[in-house]
């Protein structure tokens, strides 16, 4: 197959630091090529993913993150460069509404965000002409009437992720500087559990900086170390030497790639059972899930878990190879339903897998 992949305009593929969706697109692009397929990637021009690129794309625009005109302009350029592909997998929000009405190739789109009321309107419209991929059962359970072609959990390439020893004697938190991510709770949990906390966060947007200044900075004391936004290598080193990874999220996160990253280094996760967390964490094997009040008592129990079992769970359930194979299966199913003249077949019905 010749697959067109479209990433967003704001972060490179792969990301230099923060960027979960872009990390997934990078793994998918490389994996499809490794499996013998051709890939044409529409992404910011300063990306370094080693696959052929769609022409005419601009450099990443992080300062425009979330702005509609930036995304729409990027989408127009991306679809203009998608000639000759058999299928397009679009990871933007606006793209499927635009491109699936213009190109003869079938379009697939992945829901990377929470299905808010506004997002539901968009994906209902997209489902009229595109096949929808969800990233967790929890994500789509809230909107059972949305037609979903397949649920495909994220995966990651473990070849560049070393197993850590967990001997650093600290807990760690990695995420955005946002109330939803639970950094305030992580500070309280670590203190009550009597373990130092290292905090690695993305803090670029005005609301992130404001939350840090008004809420988090006044809380920081001798038990916390703020290490900022770090590279992948530094992140995996931080996670791998941690005794436990704290993930007390306060929102229904659709997946939570950071949890499988921590597990890949061998570090068990202690967090709240919201969003897709129960689909990722096996209680008593790869970590513990509970209420914020329960989590401090779970920290010492988690540090005693088998770190090799944490790594093995990612290899078994959340590898890039598994993710790529699931996508190839879906692409083949969609193309098999195409009409003789090559136009897209009907959107697939809901299938929970």
Walk me through the structure:
The chain has 353 residues and is an alpha/beta fold. It is 37% helix and 14% strand. It has 13 helices and twelve strands. The chain has helices at residues 20-34, 68-80, 95-99, 117-126, 137-141, 183-193, 206-216, 232-241, 257-264, 277-280, 295-303, 307-317, 320-336; strands spanning 2-6, 38-42, 87-90, 107-110, 130-134, 150-151, 171-176, 197-202, 224-226, 244-247, 269-271, 287-289. The strands form two sheets. The chain has a six-stranded parallel β-sheet with strand order 2-1-3-4-5-6. Strands 9-8-7-10-11-12 form a six-stranded parallel β-sheet, sandwiched between helices. Strand 3, helix 3 and strand 4 (107-110) form a beta-alpha-beta unit. Helix 1 (20-34) packs across helix 13, helix 6 crosses helix 11 (295-303) and helix 9 (257-264) crosses helix 12 (307-317). The longest helix has 17 residues, at 320-336.
Secondary structure: elements and pairs:
Blueprint: E1 2-6, H1 20-34, E2 38-42, H2 68-80, E3 87-90, H3 95-99, E4 107-110, H4 117-126, E5 130-134, H5 137-141, E6 150-151, E7 171-176, H6 183-193, E8 197-202, H7 206-216, E9 224-226, H8 232-241, E10 244-247, H9 257-264, E11 269-271, H10 277-280, E12 287-289, H11 295-303, H12 307-317, H13 320-336
Parallel strand pairs: 1-2, 1-3, 3-4, 4-5, 5-6, 7-8, 7-10, 8-9, 10-11, 11-12
Could you give a quick summary of the protein structure above?
This protein is 37% helix and 14% strand. The chain has 353 residues and is an alpha/beta fold. Strands 2-1-3-4-5-6 form a six-stranded parallel beta sheet. Strands 9-8-7-10-11-12 form a six-stranded parallel beta sheet, sandwiched between helices.
């Amino acid at each position: 197959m010749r697959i067109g992949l479209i990433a967003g305009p704001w972060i490179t593929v792969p990301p230099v630091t923060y960027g979960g969706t872009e990390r997934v697109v990078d793994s998918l692009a490389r994996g499809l090529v490794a499996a013998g397929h051709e890939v044409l990637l529409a992404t910011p021009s300063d990306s370094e993913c080693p696959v052929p690129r769609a022409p005419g794309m601009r450099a990443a625009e992080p300062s425009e993150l979330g702005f509609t005109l930036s995304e729409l302009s990027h989408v127009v350029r991306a679809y203009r460069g998608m000639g000759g592909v058999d299928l397009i997998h679009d990871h933007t929000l606006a793209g499927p509404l635009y491109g699936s009405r213009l190109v003869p190739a079938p379009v697939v789109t992945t829901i990377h965000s929470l299905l808010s009321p506004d997002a539901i309107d968009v994906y209902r419209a997209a489902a009229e002409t595109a096949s929808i991929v969800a990233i967790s059962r929890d994500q789509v359970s809230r909107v059972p009437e949305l037609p979903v072609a397949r649920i495909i959990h994220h995966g990651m390439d473990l070849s560049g992720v070393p197993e850590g020893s967990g001997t650093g004697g600290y807990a760690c938190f990695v995420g955005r500087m946002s109330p939803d991510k639970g950094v305030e709770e992580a500070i309280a949990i670590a203190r009550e559990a009597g373990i130092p906390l290292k905090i690695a966060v993305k803090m670029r947007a005005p609301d992130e900086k404001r939350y840090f200044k008004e809420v988090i900075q006044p809380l920081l004391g001798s038990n916390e170390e703020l290490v900022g936004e770090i590279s992948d290598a530094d992140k995996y080193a931080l996670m791998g030497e941690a005794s436990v990874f704290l993930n007390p999220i306060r929102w229904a996160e659709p997946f939570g790639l950071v949890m499988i990253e921590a597990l890949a280094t061998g570090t068990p996760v202690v967090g709240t059972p919201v969003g897709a967390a129960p689909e990722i964490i096996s209680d008593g094997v790869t970590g513990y899930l509970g209420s914020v009040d329960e989590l401090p008592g779970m920290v010492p129990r988690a540090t005693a878990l088998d770190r090799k079992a944490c790594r093995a769970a990612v290899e078994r359930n959340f590898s890039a190879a598994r993710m790529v194979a699931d996508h190839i299966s879906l692409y083949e199913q969609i193309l098999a339903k195409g009409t003789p003249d090559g136009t897209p077949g009907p959107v697939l019905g809901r299938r929970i897998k």
